[in-house]
Amino acid sequence: MRIDIITIFPEIVEALKSYSMIKRATDRGLVTVNAINLRDFAYDKHKQVDDYTYGGGAGMVLKPEPLFRAVESLSSQNAPDEVIAMTPAGTPFDQKEAEDLSRAEHLILICGHYEGIDQRVLDHLATKELSIGDYILTGGELPAMVVADAVIRLLPGVLGNQESLETESFAGGILEYPQYTRPAEFRGLKVPEVLLSGNHQEIKEWRRAQALEKTKAFRPELLDNNERED
User: Fold this and answer.
1) Is the pLDDT of residue 230 over 50?
2) Counting C-beta atoms within 10 Å of the first and last residue's C-beta, which end of the chain has fewer, N or C?
């Protein structure tokens, strides 16, 4: 897989891709993550990529010309499956979206900044907009890396045990069951006896019940979504 991240702060992407799962996947040749400096596609002498918004108002907006040039240049090398703009108004990013994107061969992610991105980019260049939550960040670099991380860890060969993908939170539409490790007792706090029993069927049933209870307590809307899908 190839992921190109268009940004005015490539050093952020370079730093974040040097750790954990992304680095492991890169070292194994499973993915290539490229930080694309948007200013390389601004042809004026000041390398300007933003300008004032028409109609007045505070803040600057990313210009269309360098973004179109950047995406067209990357597309000419390898046609992308998706050109994704990271915006507050985008579709909420979730595990299902990560699974869908993990089947792509080439993704281009556009990092917004300042007041936003010229609407012509969103209407005629991006194939979709994604948001990682209902809050505002300084730029789209962190959201882009969140998407990249969630997608990359789903690629075959990245995780040491692929089975873990089937049991973690959101994999089955609900939260993950509680986890415990040694010691079996710490400061009078004991691991549930069922987990020490060796009875795999009882453990499976306990984990399912705990996962449902945890989801009901913290994210009840997930249960509602599953009911609607059923």
Assistant:
1) no
2) C
